[in-house]
Every structure is written in C-alpha cells, then in structure tokens.
Specification:
The chain has 426 residues and is of the alpha/beta class. The protein is built from 19 helices and 12 strands.
C-alpha cells in the first residue's frame, strides 16, 4: 500500500506495461508447449447430430462458452437461421449437461463439443475441421459467437440477407488500429472458402488462449490475410444508416442523445466544442444551449452513479435532473447544425463500431445486435442502460438489461483483476 502511494503514476504505468508483457509472454509459451494448441491437434471431443437439416448449402457456426440453458437472445439467432434455411453448427467450448445437449439438438444440425482453448477463433478453426469430417463443403459460411445480444428473428432476417451480398461481409468493422472486420458476425462466399490464403490461415491457426492473441493474430491477422487475397470486409451497416439513426435521436431531444452516446471523453469534447458558439442564434433564431447541458451531464455520469442509485428514477424527465445539475431546460430540441452530426459520426466510426454505434442503431436503426460487454468496458453506464430500457417491459428487454447490469464496470476492479482489465487480458 505504501509503495503504491510513493510510486509515480508514470512509473506505475511503465511497470504495469512490463509486467503485462511478461505475463503475455508466459501465457503464450505455456500454450506453445501445450500439444492441444498446435494446429494439427484434435480438440473436438464429440459431435452430436441435431434434429434440423435444410441441406441448402449454407452453414452457420455459433461459437459459445455458455454452459447453462441458452437464453432467448441466443435462441433468436437460431430461429432466424432456421427460417432462412441455414444449417447451424453449435461449437461449444465447454462440456454441456446431457439435458442441455438434448435441448440444443432441436435447434441445430450439429452440436460439437471441443476443448476450451483458442477462444472464438479457435472454435471457428475447429468448425472447419468438423465440416471436413462430415464431408460438408458449404457454398456460404456464417460465423457468430456468444458475445452479442441477438434481437427478434424478424430483425435478424434482413441482416442474414445482407450478409449474403458479398464475398466477405460482416456486421460492422473497426478502424482501431487498422481497418478490420469484427469477428462476432462474418460471412464468406464459396470464392473465399476455396481461396488458398483462407484455407492456409485456418489450417495453421495456433490456439493461444489469450485475448491479445485473439485480437492481433485473430481479428487483425485474419483481415490482413484477406486483404492480401484481395478481399476487403463489406460492413452491412453504413455511415448513412448511422447518420439517419443519429438524426432520429436528435429529433427526440437532449435526453435521447445522453442515452445513446458512448462515454468517450472525445465525445464530450465535441459536444463542448459546439456549445462554445451555442449563444449565437442560428438561422431560425433558437439557441443551442442544450449542448452545454449534455456535455456537463455526460461528463458527470460516473460520479453520479457512485453517489447514489436512487437518482436513476429522476432521469424520467429532463426537468428532474439530480441536485447539482440545475441547468435550464430548453423547449426547442431542434438541431439544424449538420457539422455536429458529421463530427460525431467521424468520432463514433473511429472506435470499435459495435461498441460506439451498437446502442444507437439498436434504439433508432432496428439493428439486431448489441455487445454484451458495453457496461463492463465502460462504453455506457448502468444509468444509461436503465434509461434505454425503461419503456420496454418485455421479458426479452428485462433479460438483456439484467445480463448487462450484473457485471460491474471493469474500471472499478481492484488488485489482480483490475490489472488484467487495464492491460487487456479480460
């Protein structure tokens, strides 16, 4: 304790970075000497035949580490795949109880139990081996994992149709640190599936059990390989659709913007920048003072949560802000400045798009996907999530909300867990 007080913040960061490097190196060495991590190893423990078979030539893989009864937000995807006549292979990274095996077999063509190593990319690689063992060579392959909430089959249907529109499609991309497809939802045509680069990548993929490896050699490495093969990721959701959703949120008003914008400091800076000129009347003679209100309120959301949970109810109306936020509520919520939208879009697209845009599109763009870690990674606060779902009393909304809020924000973790979170291990 005394040492942590004496050491400077800069030295602490350097020390943590060095320790993180050593830990990552140790974990990779441990995996390299594990025979199960090698590409040629057999990690598949059993393959169960499911009850569904469309023989349409299209196959979807769902990689999961879930061992309990699958919740509705997974079953929605399974139903959408059944309606679209896409054969499903569930790749379970853990052993499942016999009664759950029988339940899952009703939703799929194959249920594969594998050794829990290699994370989602390891499961994807083993699914291709399992398909080869079953003598299945699909015309199109879809890859999904359990890091998402999947909305109703009605909304998932158009997504599946859009994923068929190119050789290498995905739901969203990320520009950090380079352009790459986000691995939770991807689709490939026969042209890609038979390309030598694609086959070689999966045949030689090393099953290292660290998050950093899954990102660097998985998502980034895979997209770089696809670029060499002249295949670029085609995201289903474009900037135009995001802009339309953002404008829809702005039309509703200030509180809606607060709900759906991430807690990035850069977002606060953009809002503050536009509040500088907010006292200058626009062409319609209205003031844009509420940008100041938004930026101040968003900046103080974390401290607000720490002070009291009871204030959540006070968000039901902008005029009932908690004490300390005695800001004037403007009646005119109309936004005429397109530059704000443009700057917000540029910033939102510069991050992981499923994190920065998922809630916005879920709310205003009928986007059928949302990441399950948006609170854990402090993209959104529990306060915002509570506000988003306050009007939706459905069982599905309650299940999603409870699953989100049960995990505390990672930045509040202490000790070893806090170190692992800060350095990207969890």
């Amino acid at each position: 304790m005394l040492f942590s007080r004496i050491i400077s913040p800069g030295l602490k960061k350097i020390s943590e970075a060095y320790l993180a490097f050593l830990l990552e190196l140790a974990l990779r060495i441990k995996s390299f000497i594990n025979p199960s991590a090698w590409p040629s190893a057999r990690r598949i423990e059993s393959i169960h035949k499911g009850d569904l078979c469309s023989a349409s030539g299209e196959v979807a893989v769902f990689a999961s580490s879930y061992i309990e009864t699958y919740p509705e937000f997974f079953l929605n995807l399974f139903e959408a795949l059944r309606v679209a006549r896409i054969d499903l292979m569930i790749m379970s990274n853990r052993k499942i109880a016999d009664e759950n095996v029988e339940i899952l077999k009703k939703y799929c063509r194959w249920l594969v139990i594998r050794e829990n190593i290699g994370r989602d990319f390891g499961a994807y690689a083993d699914s291709l081996k399992a398909l080869q063992e079953e003598q299945i060579f699909p015309d199109r392959l879809y890859l999904f994992n359990d890091s998402l909430y999947y909305r109703s089959p009605k909304l998932l249907g158009p997504l599946l149709s859009d994923l068929r529109s190119g050789d290498f499609t995905c739901a969203t991309v990320s520009l950090t640190p380079i352009l790459h497809a986000q691995s939770f939802c991807m689709s490939f045509s026969k042209k890609v599936l038979t390309h030598p680069f694609f086959c070689k990548y999966w045949a030689k993929y090393f099953h290292i059990n660290t998050r950093r490896w899954a990102i660097s050699k998985g998502e980034l490495g895979f997209s770089l390989m696809m670029r060499k093969a002249n295949f670029s990721p085609q995201p289903v959701f474009s900037s135009f659709q995001v802009a339309r959703a953002l404008l829809a949120a702005k039309k509703i008003g200030k509180l809606e913007l607060i709900k759906i914008l991430p807690q990035y400091s850069t977002i606060h800076s953009i809002l503050s920048k536009y509040s500088v000129s907010s006292l200058v009347p626009n062409e319609k003679g209205t003031l844009r003072q509420f940008y100041i209100d938004i930026s101040i309120f968003m900046r103080d959301i974390p401290s607000l949560i720490e002070r009291t949970v009871s204030n959540i109810a006070q968000l039901s109306s902008y005029n009932k802000l908690p004490s300390g936020f005695a800001l004037e509520a403007r009646k005119s919520d109309e936004v005429t400045d397109f530059n704000l939208t443009e700057d917000l879009l540029r910033e939102l697209f510069s991050h992981s798009q499923i994190h920065s845009l998922g809630l916005l599109l879920w709310r205003h763009g009928e986007f059928p996907l949302m990441k399950r870690d948006i609170i854990f990674r402090s993209i959104y606060s529990p306060l915002q999530i509570d506000s988003i779902f306050e009007d939706d009393l459905s069982l599905f909304a309650s299940t999603v909300k409870n699953d989100l809020i049960r995990r505390q924000e990672g930045r509040f973790l202490r000790g070893i867990q806090g170190f692992l979170f800060r350095r990207g291990f969890i």
